[in-house]
Amino acid sequence: MKTRSAPASKSAKKSEPEESKVKTLVSAEKPSKTFILPSTASDNARLVSLPDPQSGEVTRYFFCPDRGVYEFTVVAPPTHMARSILFTPRTSATSPSEEDKENPQPSVQGSITKKAELLIATPIDVIFFMIPLLAPSSKSGHSLFQPLDDIIDSHDDMPKHLRQILYDDVFRSSLLARVEAICDVVEAGDENMFRFNETKLTKELVAKAERMADHGLPMSLEERFVRQALATPLMAVKRDDIVISQPSNESEESASKSEDRQDSPSTVATTTTSSVATPVGESTPVPQPPSEEFACSDHITRLLRISTALSFIKESYLSPAMATKINEILPSAESPIDFKPLTDRLEEIAKLRAQALASRDMSNFTRKRNLDDEEDDIRAEKKRRKEEETKSKAAESHAVRSLKKVNTKGMQKMSSFFAKAAPKKT
């Protein structure tokens, strides 16, 4: 016998569509990373694991046969400011068409990532991956002319993804062009043979640093490594000549005061400040005028920017051994750029700073002076004792602090009640 279930109530039918309309946010799967990739990448682009040019550790990169290799730059908020990213489905501003109404797409829920980190793909030159392969080892000594395929095949421990990139047919022409920029090339029949040239590599790195300097360094690098490095110190000079040139008669002083009253407020402030009497023999800090030979010109500033950019490239993409070789080439005659004016200027600034430090008047307590190591130790000891006192006071109870305030003058100590009794007299 078949029975029919009771029909659903109207209230239950109404609750179903209402529940389906409610959308809840779901946390992204772990691990979740947000990549920003180039929009012009081809369909054959993929993520690869390549050795880092500076450390040799395997790191994730993005490779496109048409565009080249990209490294990922992490953009994240400070650790003390927690942030998250909300991902929502793309919505069209226009009204849905008839085809969309007939074939509606499934609804996509939004998601939230707990870490607001963006991994932005930025292009990196492939020559930084080729330098460890092309540079001769210390055992083999000077390298010889070899075909590129033989150089690649000589490294048996090469990662698989790097070998696939070097043998990619679409990327092959771009790879050969970059290898020729840092190698000596010899034609042997239908094939070119390459030999690594450190001078060519230096020229290529200097060209990159010049482009970075022309486009402008970040404000943090500009302030720390350029402006502060070229800032001249304040020198203490004697003002004997200024004292002699001051008015000697009272009539001249009164005449100068009457002229100052007719001037504007800004002029009055300037003249009165310059006419303050300075005792003979005392020193006053005044800006040291730069000499004509070592004037901080735009050329020296540009050289320092290029040197800063070049140091960043060496520390980020070159091994320590290769960076040392580049540093040896830069001051030599084979260098593509002359840093001697910059070196002379920095040496002059170092001498001025040493003179300014030596000429400080230790009797003038209005200025900051350098603390000796003993004074630093004394201050650290006082600070440590103060912290211990505050900790001991915080550990005491309220009753102990109240008992310390009691006046115990004339009272016997508690230990006197527990002392041995005096012998009785017979």
Automatic annotation (TrEMBL):
Domain named Rnh202 triple barrel: residues: 36-125
Pfam family, one: RNase_H2-Ydr279
Composition skew (Basic and acidic residues), residue ranges: 13-22, 254-263, 386-399
Subcellular location(s) per record: Nucleus
Record GO biological process: RNA catabolic process
The Ribonuclease H2 subunit B wHTH domain, residue ranges: 128-326
Recorded GO CC terms: nucleoplasm; ribonuclease H2 complex
Keywords, in A-Z order: Nucleus
Transmembrane segments: none
InterPro entries the record matches: RNase_H2_suB, RNase_H2_suB_wHTH, Rnh202_N
Superkingdom to which the source organism belongs: Eukaryota
Presence of the UniProt keyword Nucleus in the record: yes
Listed Low complexity bias regions: 1-10, 264-280
Chief place where the protein resides: nucleus
Region (Disordered): 1-25, 88-110, 241-293, 371-408
Physiological role: Non catalytic subunit of RNase H2, an endonuclease that specifically degrades the RNA of RNA:DNA hybrids. Participates in DNA replication, possibly by mediating the removal of lagging-strand Okazaki fragment RNA primers during DNA replication. Mediates the excision of single ribonucleotides from DNA:RNA duplexes.
Protein name: Ribonuclease H2 subunit B
Biological source species: Penicillium bovifimosum
Higher taxonomy: Eukaryota, Fungi, Dikarya, Ascomycota, Pezizomycotina
